[in-house]
Amino acid sequence: MEKANAKDYLGKEVTVEIDRQLGTRHPKHGFMYMLNYGYIPNTVSGDGEELDAYLVGEFEPVPTSNGKVIAVIHRTNDDDDKLVVSKDGKDYSDDAIRALTEFQEKYFESEILR
Length: 114
Description:
mainly beta
C-alpha cells in the first residue's frame, strides 16, 4: 500500500478508529491521553502504520467517530504526521490544537498545516 500524504486529507470527512481512548494511559510511556486518539483504516503513514488522528470535540471515550480533518500536525523530527479531526466540523485555532495535543506532541517538534 502506498504511503498516505496527510495533507491530502485536509477538509475531508473521515472515520477514525480509536485505539487509545480519552483517559487511558499509553502502554509503554505511561502518559494519559487527553483526547481520543486513533487511526484512519486502510492507510499507511511514514512509520509504516496507519495514519494517526487526534479527535477533537468529543468529550467521552468512544471506539470510533466520524469527523472533518481541520489540520495536520507535521512532525519535523519524526516521519509520523497526525491528522486533527473535528467531530462536529468546528474549527480550532493553532493554539487550541497545540494545547489539546500537548500531552503527546511536547516530545516532538512540529508545525500545524492547514
